[in-house]
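Hi Y.,

Following your request, here is the sequence exactly as I used it, all 233 residues.
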Amino acid sequence: MNTNHEFFLMQLADSFFPSGMFGLSNGLESLVKHDRIKNEQDVLNFIEQQIEFQLVPCDCIVFLIAMDAARNENIEELVEADNRFYSMRLIREVRNTSVRSGSQILNCVIQMTSDKKESKIAKDFQKKIKSNETVGTYPVCLGIIANLLGIPTESGIRMMLYSFSQSVIAAAIRLGILEHISGQKILTILSDKINNISTNIKKESLNNLWQLTPLTDIFQMIHEHNNSKMFIT
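Below is the corresponding structure, written out as tokens. Let me know if you'd prefer a different format.
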């Protein structure tokens, strides 16, 4: 089995990688501020609900579509998926953050792999962003990058869900409602769910995308109007 992708998998999932994920709480900060999330169990429930009703039916499917389109060098499908995902991000702050993170990781990996012939589709997509034909959302750019670095789809989904979970837990620790050991315990509890999803998830049509996180959306709207905040979202 070829394991050359594992180094890149660790590199992308590392908080040291300049994706901007460290500055996100994904709505947690506002929920904590309004006493909706108070402890370890609340954080675990929040992550599981976001995975089930946001990431799996929307973000992960867009990631799979982007990986497949990049593999086939289908720039039109990449642009369509990117614009569709952007239109589904209802909160301005969340839309902007997805674009900043996506463009950042795309630019970083293009510079890391500029000598690879496989980077052509990534460069072509970046040109579409610069010409304002598309925006460069996080799951689409991550799908392009995963294809470029030879990361299998299953590993890519696992990385995506882990990175989200880790960013929420890191935010909870900085907000003072979790200790580091409790954070690691949550990740361990989530491991079976994440592994099961990454093994069984299938690519769907863009027309089948959906999301249902109204409470988180409301508190993210409140968050973007706060004058004092620790996190971007």
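Residues 52-151+203-224 form one domain.

Thanks again,
Q.
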